[in-house]
Design a protein that fits this description.
This protein is an alpha/beta fold and about 260 residues long. Helices cover about 35% and strands about 20% of the residues.
Length: about 260
């Protein structure tokens, strides 16, 4: 079954490399297109893309823009047996650290999160066999706190009790493949590991593994974060991943940041 990926970014590429059939997808530059062609992945410029007629599965990882969902705007007549839309756990907003599952009300706290809620609703309204995946912070090779510590850019922000959920990219791929094997149109899945944790604890563990002294604790105000980075600290919540285990039979390879960070060494 051909898979078409709108947005061959970090996660979609990880899926393409494990997918057992032909994969086509979109990129935004000729440079990226040539890079993926060298790897044997068929990529098209989004502005010129044509979805092959034998496409059976579609993954959407393109974020919404100011006008809505760009994929639905440019491709209003899609057809597929399985559609996966990559959303974010940010749609739940702030719960003060309380646990949420897929039945929790959506209370987005920022414009980006509100746009995600609107995009989820737009995809559901298409009548396609859509599956929504609300992803935690994705990390993996080349994109983790290990890399930040090595570059000297990691910060240990002191905010006790403020939790973040995360997920290794390979576990995201496992969830997507499991959903393709057990399709359930309309389903929503939280995709995160078993242990929400304070970011400072994750930096400390990365430094321990690397044999380095952790950077000093600093307040959020003194951390010098960009407005985008600081916005992620607006919400504090724990997220349940029970559904991916119970419904899809997924066993996480990296159930916490500890196993994930060790694997990256």
């Amino acid at each position: 079954m051909r898979l078409f990926c709108f947005g061959l970014g970090y996660t979609a590429l990880a899926l393409a490399r494990r997918y057992p059939g032909p994969v086509t997808g979109t990129v935004l530059s000729e440079e990226k297109r040539a890079e993926l062609a060298a790897e044997g992945i068929d990529a098209q410029l989004f502005s010129e893309a044509r979805v092959p007629s034998d496409t059976r599965r579609i993954l959407v990882s393109v974020p919404p823009d100011a006008e809505g969902d760009p994929v639905l705007r440019r491709f209003p007549d899609l057809r597929a047996d399985w559609v996966g839309y990559l959303s974010t756990i940010g749609v739940y907003g702030d719960t003060g650290g309380a646990m949420v599952d897929e039945t929790a009300p959506l209370k987005p706290s920022g414009d980006r999160q509100r746009a995600r809620v609107a995009a989820e609703e737009a995809w559901r309204a298409t009548g396609l066999p859509v599956h929504i995946f609300r992803l935690a912070g994705i990390y993996g090779p080349g994109r983790s706190v290990i890399d930040q510590v090595r570059k000297g850019t990691a910060k240990r922000i002191h905010r006790p009790g403020h939790l973040f959920s995360r997920i290794h990219v390979e576990d995201v791929v496992t969830v997507l493949l499991a959903s393709m094997a057990r399709p359930n149109p309309g389903a929503v899945y939280n995709v995160c590991d078993d242990e929400p944790a304070e970011p400072a604890a994750v930096v400390t563990e990365a430094c321990r593994l690397l044999g380095l002294v952790p950077p000093p604790l600093v307040s959020l105000e003194a951390a010098g974060l960009s407005p985008m980075a600081r916005s992620f600290w607006t919400d504090n919540r724990r997220v349940s991943n029970a559904r991916i285990k119970q419904e899809l039979g997924v066993t996480l390879r990296y159930p916490s940041y500890r196993e994930g960070l060790r694997s990256l060494l």
